[in-house]
Write a structure and sequence with these properties.
The structure is a homodimer of 136-residue chains.
Chain A: H1 2-22, H2 25-39, H3 43-53, H4 56-60, H5 62-81, H6 84-90, H7 96-111, H8 117-132
Helix pairs in contact in A: 1-3, 2-3, 2-5, 5-7, 7-8
InterPro entries (chains A, B): EhaM-like_sf, NiFe_EhaM
Organism (chains A, B): Methanococcus vannielii (strain ATCC 35089 / DSM 1224 / JCM 13029 / OCM 148 / SB)
Protein name (chains A, B): (NiFe)-hydrogenase-3-type complex Eha, EhaM
Chain lengths: 136, 136
């Protein structure tokens, strides 16, 4: 009997957690989808992992984390795509400060100003080249 | 007259620096080529930038930096390609320690054990999925 109550409670808590995630388009698009793509895992498996690890309260609060992750992980992609990792961090051909400005510009153009990533990236690339050549 | 000497000295120093870079296959392949690709700049332009910024002594010593950059920047690519940025750094679905192990394994398999990057990445991906699902 107690076991049944416990099981019912767990089932309804699990169901609630699934509903929180699946009902939140932002979490689905900006967290579940990119993780599913990177790990080549079905989206349902990624949802399962979130449900297993997070409680409902944390899931309700996850909007802020998703926003941070979106900005932060895009910034790291810019580092790779523009070679900032090489030219700033390891070879010091441009300053870390200049690299921060370029990265921030591409991330903000993409996420806040809604430019396509490749377009933002091309502008970041042009800026990096100008700085490298001492024209900026 | 003094101007001529100065100019000759500069020319020969420049030539020496070009020769150091162009004669070093490792620097060409592991620094000039990836930067040239990332910035979509002709390789000669990238060589020009190195020659402008570095003196000969630093160029002779750059082998160590190139090695570090190669490992470091590949690690950052792994973070993006496997979504470690998301699952470890922002969502805490796996520990930073586990993410470090996965990243290190992929980088070492690729650079030290000379496995193709995509193959190393697939193994890293399988490991990440196992850890996420609590099977490891």
């Amino acid at each position: 009997m107690l076991e049944d109550i416990d099981k019912n409670y767990k089932d309804s808590s699990l169901k609630q957690k699934y509903n929180i995630i699946k009902g939140n388009r932002y979490i689905m698009e900006e967290a579940i989808v990119p993780i599913s793509k990177a790990l080549k895992l079905p989206m349902d498996d990624v949802v399962d992992i979130f449900v297993k690890i997070y409680d409902s309260a944390s899931l309700y609060e996850s909007h802020a984390y998703v926003e941070q992750a979106k900005m932060g992980c895009l910034g790291r992609r810019v580092d790779i795509d523009l070679g900032l990792c090489w030219i700033a961090d390891f070879f010091g051909l441009i300053s870390k400060n200049d690299a921060d400005l370029i990265r921030k510009k591409v991330v903000e153009d993409t996420i806040i100003r809604k430019k396509p990533y490749n377009e933002s990236l091309e502008e970041g690339r042009a800026l990096a080249v100008k700085i490298l050549k001492g024209e900026e």
